[in-house]
Amino acid sequence: QMADPFRYDTGERSKYECLGHEVQIEHIKAYVCRPSFFTDKAVIVIHDVFGWLFPDIRYIVDLIAGHGYITICPDFFKGTDPWKTTDHWADFADWMRDHDPMKVDKEADVVLKHLKEQCGAKKIGVVGFSWGGMAVHHLMLKNPHLAAGVSLYGIIRDSEERYNLLNPTFFIFGEKDHTISYDQITLLEEKLQQYCKVAYKIKVYPGQVHGFAQLKPEDMKPDDKPYIEEARRDMIDWIKMFI
Question: What number of CA atoms fall less than 13 Å from residue 226's CA on the CB side?
């Protein structure tokens, strides 16, 4: 049985009043937040196992939009149930088989087309958390239209082709994340040095567990707050460097 990878009780997060709105793009629902001024820069946010309705991910969308990007979080589960806090971890592997983060290409293409044709976006990046972090890693290997990516605590395992990134990618990890071993991070670093021809960065944040960077300010523990805020600043800085 898989241990619960979250130190934070996801059932007791504070509520969140969203700044954006929901839209329908072909077969996909999405949450969108725009800055108050015109921009031709956009960021796709890929949610974790808790899906596009989860308050924490909407907070992140609003946060990125506040830095001057059309920011969109599509429902990559296409209306099917996200993982719930009441679900049993023994069933997680089966659930993952039906929700494969390496099968997001079609939805990503639909959203990219929408951003370019309907929103006038010229440069588009992608940020993803956990399940979404794996999806970002996958997309940065496959989709040249994404100008930069930030993958937060999501790692593609058991594949030699995971190192030839097409565009600049930043990998964020928590030191105490027991879903990703330090050996896996070291291997990623070694292989990227060997194969990767674009800018990349790997950073590990001290004492942080899986899911640390999504927390809203009122849900942060005081000891973790500086690292969470640093990870967010680093994420935004990477986006601004390339988009």
Answer: 3
Q: Domain spans of the chain?
A: 21-242
**10 Å Cβ neighbour count for 217?**
10
CA distance 70 to 86: 33
Residue 114: how many CB atoms within 10 A of its CB? 20
| The two three-digit tokens of residue 135, written as one number | 């999806």
pLDDT in tens, 30-78: 999 999 999 999 999 999 999 999 999 999 999 999 999 999 999 999 9
Cα dihedral sign for 211, 216, 222, 225?
Answer: positive
In degrees and rounded to multiples of 5, residue 136 shows phi and psi of -65, -45
Whether 214 and 174 have beta carbons less than 8 Å apart is answered as: no
Mean residue pLDDT of the chain comes to 92
Question: Residues 206, 170: contact at Cβ < 8 Å?
Answer: no
DSSP string, 58-126: HHHHHHHHTTT-EEEEE-TTTTSPPP-TTS-GGGHHHHHHHS-TT--HHHHHHHHHHHHHTT--SEEEE
pLDDT in tens, 2-39: 344 444 555 566 678 889 999 999 999 999 999 999 99
Q: Are 61 and 73 within 8 A, CB to CB?
A: yes
Evaluate whether 115 touches 124 at the Cβ level (below 8 Å). Answer: yes
Instruction: Report the candidate in 137, 166, 168, 177 with the shortest Cα–Cα distance to residue 154.
Output: 137
Topology given in CATH for the domain delimited by 21-242: Rossmann fold (3.40.50)
Our CA angle for 108, 43, 152, nearest 5°, is 85
Report field, pTM of the whole predicted structure over 0.90: yes
